[in-house]
Amino acid sequence: AYVQRTRARHAAHATDGRVFLHVTFEVKPSNQAAFLAEFAPLLVASCAEPGCIKYQMTTEKDMPNAFVLIEEWASDEALARHQTLPHFTTHVPKMEQLAKITVHRYETCNVAALAAAQSKL
């Protein structure tokens, strides 16, 4: 029963339009305090936005100046709206001056459909 519920839940989310960002920040130790001061208000405001499902900063234990932001948005529209809001347009340009930033974008996919398409090749 658990497996069937899990498969049903995964199938429902397979192509639901969610967007995921994996953003890495490489921050020099001398810039860390300023970087975190810029990030804090961005985090609070972003989490309160409609369409924001997850906005979580993480760091590696052995690399205290490397941060990873994991974002999950309900849709492309929610993410696009986020990128126009004052907390984004104010703080992100300042963060870009303090860190090397790399953004990877992911979307949900229907694994069963991809596997079926691959098997037909």
Top keywords for this entry?
alpha+beta; 121 residues; 31% strand
List the helices and strands and how they pair.
Elements: H1 2-13, E1 19-27, H2 32-47, E2 52-60, E3 63-73, H3 76-82, H4 86-98, E4 99-107, H5 111-119
Antiparallel strand pairs: 1-3, 1-4, 2-3
Strand content: 25-35%
Beta strand count: 4
Major sheet strand order:
2-3-1-4
Q: What is the general shape?
A: globular
Q: Which class of secondary structure composition applies to the elements?
A: alpha+beta
List the uncertain runs.
Answer: none
- Summed over residues and divided by their number, the pLDDT gives a mean of 87
Structure description:
There is one protein chain. The longest helix is centred in the first third of the chain and has 16 residues. With 121 residues, the protein is of the alpha+beta class. Helix 2 packs antiparallel against helix 4. A hairpin with a 2-residue loop joins strand 2 and strand 3. Strands 2-3-1-4 form a 4-stranded antiparallel sheet. The chain contains 5 helices and 4 strands. The radius of gyration is 18 Å and the shape is globular. The model has no long low-confidence stretch (mean pLDDT 87).
